Amino acid sequence: MGFFSEDERKVRMRKLSELFPQLELDSLRTLITFLHTSHEVYNAISGKLSGYGLSVGKLKIVMPLFVHACSLTPSELAHYSGVTRSTMTSMIDGLERDGIIKRASLDDRRMTAIHLTEKGREIMNATLPEYAVSISDMMRDFTAEDHELFIGLLQKLTSGLERFKDS
């Protein structure tokens, strides 16, 4: 993992524990491993998606439109993708510029609906089969029990993250 050999990593961790005795080294090692792995996963997924003119952020917006096969409001898309409305606006602008989505006014004209264009549907139909195979291949060493355990551990990390944010 990373730039250092296992021996170098142990020496660095020991030095850290001497400087900061309150630091739990198992927690630090686990977090560093998680951050490194999540960064690598993100980069690998981004590389696959970029071949289709998509990014992880764009996929989070386009996916609900594709799955639900209907128009959604920017607020609904922000909710589904977990981003702020201001971030959503700039993402929508880019996707519209790329011809993947289109804005339309709803009946009362105060609300905007976002829908996939034909180009957007074609991109999703071309991307998702390869994307699904890649994800399955990445996770193929996981058993059903591993998936459940991993999800449980990530939920524990999420709880810890909430405490971290609140402190």
TrEMBL record:
<dbReference type="Pfam" id="PF01047">
    <property type="entry name" value="MarR"/>
</dbReference>
<dbReference type="InterPro" id="IPR000835">
    <property type="entry name" value="HTH_MarR-typ"/>
</dbReference>
<keyword id="KW-0805">Transcription regulation</keyword>
<dbReference type="InterPro" id="IPR036390">
    <property type="entry name" value="WH_DNA-bd_sf"/>
</dbReference>
<protein>
    <submittedName>
        <fullName>MarR family transcriptional regulator</fullName>
    </submittedName>
</protein>
<keyword id="KW-0238">DNA-binding</keyword>
<feature type="domain" description="HTH marR-type">
    <location>
        <begin position="9"/>
        <end position="159"/>
    </location>
</feature>
<dbReference type="InterPro" id="IPR036388">
    <property type="entry name" value="WH-like_DNA-bd_sf"/>
</dbReference>
<keyword id="KW-0804">Transcription</keyword>
